[in-house]
Amino acid sequence: MIGTSTLYTLAGILLFGMGLYALIAYPHLLRKILALNVMGVGIFMVLISIAYQGPTQRADPVPHALVITGIVVAVCATGLALTLATRIQALTGSARLETDEEA
Amino acid sequence: MQTSDIDRALQTDDTRLTRPRLFVLALTTALIAALATAALTFPDNVGRLAPLALDSLPRSGVLNPVTAVLLNYRGYDTLLEVAVLLLAIVGVWAIAPTARVWFKTPDTPVLATFVRLLLPLMIVVAGYMLWLGADEPGGAFQGGAVLGGVGVLWVAAAVWLPRRGHPFWLRLLLGAGVAAFVIAAVGLLFLTGGLLQYPPEQAKTVILVIEGAAMFSIGATLAVLFIGGYPRREEEK
Amino acid sequence: MMIVEWFDATLVIILLACAWLALTTPNLLRAVMLFIAFGLLVALAWVRLQAPDVALAEAAVGSGLTGALLLSTLSAMQRAAQKRRAQGEAAPKSTKEESDAN
Question: What is the pLDDT of residues A43-66, one digit of tens each?
Answer without folding.
Answer: 999 999 988 887 788 888 889 999
